[in-house]
Amino acid sequence: MLALIQRVTQAKVEVGEETVGTIGPGLLALVAAEPGDSESQIVRMAEKLLRYRVFADDAGKMNRSLQEIAGDLLLVSQFTLAADTNSGLRPSFSSAAPPAEAEPIFERLLAECRRISPGRVETGRFRAHMTVSLVNDGPVTFLLRI
After folding, report:
1. Residue 76 burial by CB count (10 A; 0-12/13-18/19+): exposed, middle or buried?
2. Does pLDDT of 35 surpass 90?
3. C-beta separation of 133 from 122 below 8 A
4. Sequence-distant (≥ 6) Cβ neighbours of residue 108 within 8 angstroms
5. Which of 25, 40, 64, 127 sits between 20 and 30 A of 88, alpha carbons compared?
6. Which residue among 55, 67, 79, 106 is the active-site one?
7. Catalytic site residue 106?
8. d(Cα 112, Cα 9) in Å, to the nearest integer?
9. What is the tens place of the pLDDT at every residue in 72-117?
10. What is the per-residue pLDDT for 87?
């Protein structure tokens, strides 16, 4: 499982003209499931998303987590993160979980994040063409792999 996280002051995801998820200060996480992702990996990713220290403390150091600041989380499924780009000029998606496997993994991650998060947890729409807008704070961006 992969998650590209970005610290944001705000973010939203739209499907067509409909806003399906919007957050204030917090994290935008673009998430890709890989074949065989397990329940323990899902739980570890949820904990990492909520506890990864990317927010400034009083001294200006990245020492506070999303959980500590009670920030918002916007989870967006993005299978292209798992692409194999090692050869050629076209990505291969054989390393991404197929939709029938990926959707329950993503839904379980969403449920776990909602269970442990003190802030709002919003999402996009699985398998939809989405428009994601964000204001990256920093910019601060990390790739997490579980």
Report:
1. buried
2. yes
3. no
4. 39, 42
5. 127
6. 79
7. no
8. 23
9. 999 999 999 999 898 889 999 989 999 999 999 999 999 999 999 9
10. 87
**Residue from 6, 67, 78, 123 carrying the catalytic annotation:** 78
pTM for this model (two decimals): 0.94
Q: Say whether 80 is catalytic.
A: yes
Q: What six digits make up the tokens of 108?
A: 């379980």
Domains and CATH numbers, the chain: 2-145 (3.50.80.10)
Question: Is residue 93 annotated as a catalytic residue, yes or no?
Answer: no
Residues with Cβ within 8 Å of residue 45, at least 6 apart in sequence: 1, 3, 31, 109, 144, 146
Cβ burial, residue 140 (10 Å; 0-12/13-18/19+): middle
CB-CB neighbours of 127 under 10 Å: 11
